[in-house]
Amino acid sequence: MKKSAIWLSAFMLIATLAYPNLIRPDKMPLFVKQSFTEKFPNVKDVRCTKNKKEYKITFDENGMKRSARFDEYGKWLETATEVKIAGIPAEIRTSVAKNFEGYSISEPVSVETPDLAPYYQMNLRNGNIGYEVRFSPRGDILQKTELEDEDYDDEVN
Fold it and tell me: Average pLDDT of 112-121?
């Protein structure tokens, strides 16, 4: 019995540390809430998580699923907007067909940051091989990172 309690406590500690903390929108720090509301005034279904010193806020805006990240002082760090496969620019689809023949596209998003030009990010898979790839709007490959086994498993399930 004593061992079971120790294992359960250890599991709970690991689970707590491994997953971000869900925060009710009305419990967000004032700076974060003000910055978010100023940047995104007309949104629905707001959910917030805290991971280390960053807040990730997911929401719906005009029928689009979006997420925004802010630091603990309310500084906007990034916004990602879900993109339908059909909404991926033709230049990027051409680049995928040329550079990743036989790969399927999943989880496409457009990304805006204060420091970088807007880009598109998506996962590309062909069997057990997968990459997270960033493209410029013109279809240039900006970054290509191999998906880890756990990334692949999480996205498939």
Answer: 96
